[in-house]
Amino acid sequence: MPISLQLKVNGQVRDARVDDRTTLLDMLRDHLALTGTNKGCDQGACGACTVIVDGRRVLSCLTLAAQCDGREVTTIEGLATAEGLHPMQEAFIRHDAFQCGYCTPGQIMSAVCLIQEGRAGTDDEIREFMSGNLCRCGAYPNIVAAVRDVAQREAY
Amino acid sequence: MNDLTYRRAADVDAAIATVSADPGAVFLAGGTTVLDLALKDAVTHPSVIVDIGRLPLRGITEDEDRLRVGALTTMEELAAHPALRRRVPFVREALLAGASTQLRNMATIGGNVLQRTRCRYFRDRAVHACNKREPGSGCAALTGAARMHAILGAGPDCIAVHASDLCVALVALDAELHLQGPDGRRTVPLRDFYVPPAGRPDVENVLRHGEMITRIDIPMPPEGARSGYLKVRDRTSYEFALVSAAAAMSMSGETITAARLALGGVGTVPWRAPAAERVLIGAPAVTSTFRAAAEAAIDTPFTVPGTAFKIELAKRTVVRILRTVSGAR
After folding, report:
1. What span, in angstroms and rounded, lies between the C-alpha atoms of A97 and B301?
2. Mind giving me the DSSP string for B221-280?
3. Reading across the β-sheet that carries B25-28, which strands appear in turn?
4. Which domains does chain A have, with CATH numbers?
5. Tens of pLDDT along A37-85?
6. Which CATH architecture has domain B60-114+167-219?
7. Cα–Cα distance between B308 and B266 in angstroms, integer?
């Protein structure tokens, strides 16, 4: 059954009319043309679809769009500003923290939250609390290096 | 894709009335089980999902002797509560050993209690034999890849594990569930909430249709009690348990004066081990005591070739957590 929603996506109020079974992931990609959020397993196992809803990182493939009515959503497209890329995006480039890049938007959204959560104190902590984001290319050492770099810069 | 309708509940009474009125209706909280099974695996077929995510059943209050946890509190919110670190560190350890941060931000405590098994045969609709899905159809796991399956409370009808980490610690603490349904409110100890699969694996708990969990009460052990949670798994993080153990104890000198023990990854329900607790209480905190407790904990297991290794692994896991928690050398 179609349902009308209004939510704030990357700072902008957006209206959408979607089937009520539509996931947040499919609404972002297919209705709002925000294709930066990737669909990996589409079943809550890989983390590729990670976005931020009301300040917390969640999996958009296991969230209904309808559940997000009135909420604030941030996707990978919402991180950069007029001044340039987000520091985490810069760090991923600097440390070559990806190969194919498919998991990267989810990795970066998760990493941004990880730092806000105060869980980037050690490499072990970064690995533990980034474990919901899988990278089939195995770029993990460089991902940890990128996150560590941002965490240390922000500590000053 | 299943045809289903989404509705958002205005309040608890309305949610209960809506679900009660339709045998195919279900409550939707965090969604990590309900949406997965209905939309992705298509092994459940709800007609209506009633979103209770915005109802005022969220938040934690701390009393002297217990934590009262609203059923819609998320796993991350509960893990962050300072009382956990201070009074029941093993509840926090169990919470953070489960899933990933993203899933813990979504999944609620009520939903964690009600999560369905991860048995791959249950979740694969191409598999015919699953007594949990289709009573009387058999159990494909018995002759299948059963590494992740149960040995306690299991039998030829079903060997599916209850995969919660949190509930292992909660059952050790005698947590209580507050339920509300069309016939009113009641309180059920977590220990009596789950139903072992014998005969009817499709019946997993005593919850009635239209009834919801509104609150989970976690009794606090006495000051000075120690606790720990040990999860043994194939990956260091973001993986279900092969075996896990939750232990809490109080000691006077070298003597154990109080003990709680429960196991995960091996039970069809979160598995309390009262016989092991009886071995521990009054005994010296030494390895021979712990081994005797482990033998008592793994009483009359039911194994298939894929799960036979879990008997010894579970016993060693019990010994390890008891040594750690007691500080015994």
Report:
1. 47
2. PPTT-EEEEEEE-SSSSS---SEEEEEEEEEETTEEEEEEEEEESSBSS-EE-HHHHHHH
3. B5-8, B48-51, B25-28
4. 2-78 (3.10.20.30), 87-155 (1.10.150.120)
5. 999 999 999 999 999 999 999 999 999 999 999 999 999 999 999 999 9
6. 2-Layer Sandwich (3.30)
7. 11
Chain A residues whose CB is inside 8 A of the B33 CB are: none
- Looking at domain B1-51, its CATH class is alpha beta
d(CA A101, CA B305): 41
State both tokens at A38. 């990737």
Angle B138-B114-B197 from CA coordinates, rounded to 5°: 30
Contact flag A3-B238 (C-beta cutoff 8 Å)? no
Closest chain B residue to A49, measured at CA: B102
Query: For B294-319, what is each residue's pLDDT tens digit?
Result: 999 999 999 999 999 999 999 999 99
Which 8-state DSSP code applies to residue B21? T
Which residues on adjacent β-strands are paired with residue A13? A8
Helices within chain B (DSSP H only): 12-20, 34-35, 75-79, 82-87, 89-96, 101-106, 109-114, 166-172, 190-193, 274-280, 287-297, 310-326
Which residues of chain A make contact with B101, given a CB cutoff of 8 A? 57, 110, 113-114, 117, 119, 129, 132
Residue B226 belongs to what H/E stretch?
strand B226-232
- B223-250 pLDDT, tens digit per residue, is 889 999 999 999 999 999 999 999 999 9
Cα(A23)–Cα(B238) distance, integer angstroms: 23
Kindly give the pairing relationship between strand B212-219 and strand B60-62: unpaired
Q: Which residue(s) pair with B158 in the sheet?
A: B155
Please state the domain extents for chain B: 1-51, 60-114+167-219, 226-326
List the one residue out of A117, A112, A121 whose CA is nearest residue A152: A121
B226-326 CATH: 3.30.390.50
d(CA B130, CA B232): 27
Q: Do B36 and A44 touch (CB under 8 A)?
A: yes
Determine, for residues A110 and B102 on separate chains, whether the beta-carbon distance falls below 8 Å: yes
Angle at B28 between CA B23 and CA B29, to 5 degrees: 145
- Could you count the other beta carbons within 10 Å of the beta carbon of residue A35? 14
What are the CA-CA distances from residue B209 to residues A11, B56, B256 (Å)? 41, 21, 43
